[in-house]
Amino acid sequence: TLASTAGRTIHPNDHVNLGQSSNDVVPTAIRVSAQLAVIEDLLPALKHLRRTIDKRGKALGKVVKTGRTHLMDAMPLTFAQEFGAWSSQLASAEARLDDTLKRLRRLPIGGTAIGTGINAHPQFGRKVARALSTMTGARFESADDKFEGIATQDDAVELSGQLNVLAVALIKIANDLRWMNSGPLGGLGEIELPALQPGSSIMPGKVNPVIPEATVMAAAQVMGHHTAVTVAGQSGNFQLNVALPLIAANLLESIQLLSNVSRLLADSTIARLKVRRDNVDAALARNPILVTALNPIIGYEKAAAIAKRAYAEQRPVIEIAREDSGLSDAELDTLLDPAELTKGGIHEGAGGG
């Protein structure tokens, strides 16, 4: 040890701890550990989830389904478009995290007690940041204003906020999957998620979407952690934040929860889901909202009447349109083609305006 080889008495305060304080060491440790957890665990997990979504979306690129707004039937889209929105959410989350890390990497080490750097060598902070960068392969830098890094934890609160946004995105994705899987007979039944359990403990054959449900719970925990971190961040009275242990524990657990559940969602749900084409195609054929494409040609009121009649008579909208729109079969086949409607725009035969 240093004490046994120094040839003189080593004092823990006079020598070992002369140039540092828990006041700058602990905030530095929070920043280093959180930065590494995001870089080594969370970002790779998000990339894996996004790649899995993109792969499944590409494979289902030509499968058209009913879109939904307000949980009601809406214009059609492809599975690739629906999955693509999830992927874009995750890409945005990655970008926000990358941006936050630019501030989190500023280390207050060397500020010692309150930020003045009393009893510390002037180069201590820069040398520690350089050594940590070399050891970890991640970028760290000495904070220009060490008073800020000790008195406040705004950068940690910001990171927690980005984790909160990611939790929101994961809940949205998980709940979409739950709705799409609902049924299998009395719900939407668009997809079939893999069975990861024998079934309900009392209802034989009932298989629940346990991974999306676990995702929702993990994300809810992250949201709770963020509320606590936000309150803790307010506890930076004058020159020291006194809630550092809470910030550290919640921040690191949130990163781990999101990392783990992202991989589970990718490998145990999205990679293995099956599309129930019979249900998807049947719902699309009955969707009266396809008539929206006729608005520019026959007008909103006439299109609405066709949609309402199709719904009331439980008939495909194209059948009613052939009877009531005044358009030819060829025109309707083109205008009401669900695959063409996923491309947007004003379709052939429509007037300007």
UniProtKB/TrEMBL annotation:
Keywords: Cytoplasm, Lyase, Tricarboxylic acid cycle. Residues 1-21 are annotated as: Disordered. The keyword Cytoplasm applies. Residues 3-224 form the Fumarate lyase N-terminal domain. Its EC number is 4.2.1.2. Residues 290-343 form the Fumarase C C-terminal domain. One of its GO terms (biological process) is fumarate metabolic process. Gene3D superfamilies: Fumarase/aspartase (C-terminal domain), Fumarase/aspartase (Central domain). GO terms for molecular function: fumarate hydratase activity. Coiled coil: none annotated. Belongs to the class-II fumarase/aspartase family. Fumarase subfamily. This is fumarate hydratase. It comes from Sphingomonas taxi. The lineage of its organism: Bacteria, Pseudomonadati, Pseudomonadota, Alphaproteobacteria, Sphingomonadales.
